[in-house]
Amino acid sequence: MAVLLLTVCGLVMVLCLCFALLKRNQIRRYLPPGTMGWPFFGETTEFLKHGPNFMKNQRARYGSLFKSHILGCPTVVSMDPEINRYILMNEGKGLVPGYPQSMLEILGKNNIAAVHGATHKYIRGSMLSLIGPASIRLHLLSKIDMLLRSYLDNWDGKTIDIQERTNEMALLISFKLIVEIESSQIYETFKKEFDKLVVGTLSLPINIPGSNYHQGLQGRKRVTKLLRQIMEERRASSVTHNDMLDELLRNEDSNYKLSDVEIIDQVITILYSGYETVSTTTMMAIKYLHDHPRALQELRDEHFAMRQRKKPDEPIDWNDYKSMNFTRAVIYETSRLATIVNGVLRKTTKDIELNGFIIPEGWRIYVYTREINYDPFLYPEPFTFNPWRWLDSKSLESHNYCFIFGGGTRLCPGKELGIVKITMFLHYFVTTYRWEEVGGDKLVQFPRVEAPTGLHIRVSKY
Ligand code: HEM
């Protein structure tokens, strides 16, 4: 009897093992083609070294959906516009944001990219009520006007690093919109810690003293402490403020009541998401305008024509902003040509079928949108800076495959605010100054758009 039992148990175990192996092989068989590179390191080095060319080579070999192992995770890369669109539109089917652990730990557990479903809807609603078009029209636009007018004052006769200045502008303006009064006293300390936080989000999650990740966590701790202090002081005082933090604290008037930790994560997210995106797009717009005098002339004409309708110190209002079609086209064309965002990351919460392949649960999907920006059918002569293309076809912005600001339920909620900041910067810059490049500065396009030693320009009165 015992022998029979043992034999049956053994048979069952063998069958289970066979089934598991079969299942594994099936999944393997149904994964998209591709290579996984070295154990642990995968193909990260090739990806970082050859960037867009690595992606294009893999696509040529394996098609628009291929597997790889990059940045520490088994990953499926999608370069197919239709599949990319499907992924962005179908978060509910188990395709949630898949940003690295280091990023989520540092930006906070209530950070918008870390939450899904109903919580995401709520956090996003709160975010849009703070930075969406209605808020821009009512409060933010006039403040940004004032802040940028003063930021760009006094540049005459100077040689500056425009990368450094646009970087400073992007954080400073957001910070002042969040904490108007306190910003002047604590900005320098805050920026120092915030910059550590930013570097930490893009690091390997190794928490040992001296590592970028450790510094990032320390940065978050100090940023949180500074924000908590301000929140406590404001609660203890009867003075009201006209800024985003006050709006977040005045829970009782709001449709969106957030806890203190949620408020802190929301503030960090706003500062983080609108930092490099806005600063790099502004820097690259200045670069492209410098290299394309006809586009610069048309942009200047638009701004001077608008200025002529106004008194010298009158701020720009929503209607003025909305009338600046060419400026908007310059911003879109800059984002497209420079590709400030290469793509977005998702991860599967269950096995997902994509284009006939099975992507196992827990895999990352790199929705790689960069190449769509250079598709000659969408953008004829794709490597030419041609802002006019956005005027000729009004629908280009809302084209199904225009992913400059993402898409679906995660479409950038700061899109309009970002465009407003860049527009206002350009307004005061091109109507006050002319500029020439000092020359010789190198620009790197991948994995981030940056000028490693700065982008130096000589500025003089226009
Ligand atoms: C030129 C400027 C900008 C570009 C190119 C840009 C691009 C993007 C892209 C591609 C996404 C999609 C991410 C994903 O699907 O995972 C996104 C999301 C997001 N952006 Fe922007 N962005 C810009 C400016 C801003 C600004 C100024 C803010 C805030 C003040 C902001 C806040 C956000 C937030 C909070 C999300 C996450 C939305 C969600 O998960 O629901 N962005 N952005």
From TrEMBL:
Pathway: Secondary metabolite biosynthesis; terpenoid biosynthesis. One of its GO terms (biological process) is sterol metabolic process. Its cofactor is heme. Heme binds at C412. It is an enzyme of class 1 (oxidoreductase). Its EC number is 1.14.14.179. Keywords: Brassinosteroid biosynthesis, Heme, Iron, Lipid biosynthesis, Lipid metabolism, Membrane, Metal-binding, Monooxygenase, Oxidoreductase, Steroid biosynthesis, Transmembrane, Transmembrane helix. It catalyses: 6-deoxoteasterone + 2 reduced [NADPH--hemoprotein reductase] + 2 O2 = teasterone + 2 oxidized [NADPH--hemoprotein reductase] + 3 H2O + 2 H(+); 6-deoxocastasterone + 2 reduced [NADPH--hemoprotein reductase] + 2 O2 = castasterone + 2 oxidized [NADPH--hemoprotein reductase] + 3 H2O + 2 H(+); 6-deoxotyphasterol + 2 reduced [NADPH--hemoprotein reductase] + 2 O2 = typhasterol + 2 oxidized [NADPH--hemoprotein reductase] + 3 H2O + 2 H(+); 3-dehydro-6-deoxoteasterone + 2 reduced [NADPH--hemoprotein reductase] + 2 O2 = 3-dehydroteasterone + 2 oxidized [NADPH--hemoprotein reductase] + 3 H2O + 2 H(+). It is a single-pass membrane protein. One of its GO terms (molecular function) is monooxygenase activity. GO terms for cellular component: membrane. Pfam families: p450 (PF00067). It is found in: Membrane. Belongs to the cytochrome P450 family. This is brassinosteroid 6-oxygenase. The lineage of its organism: Eukaryota, Viridiplantae, Streptophyta, Embryophyta, Tracheophyta.
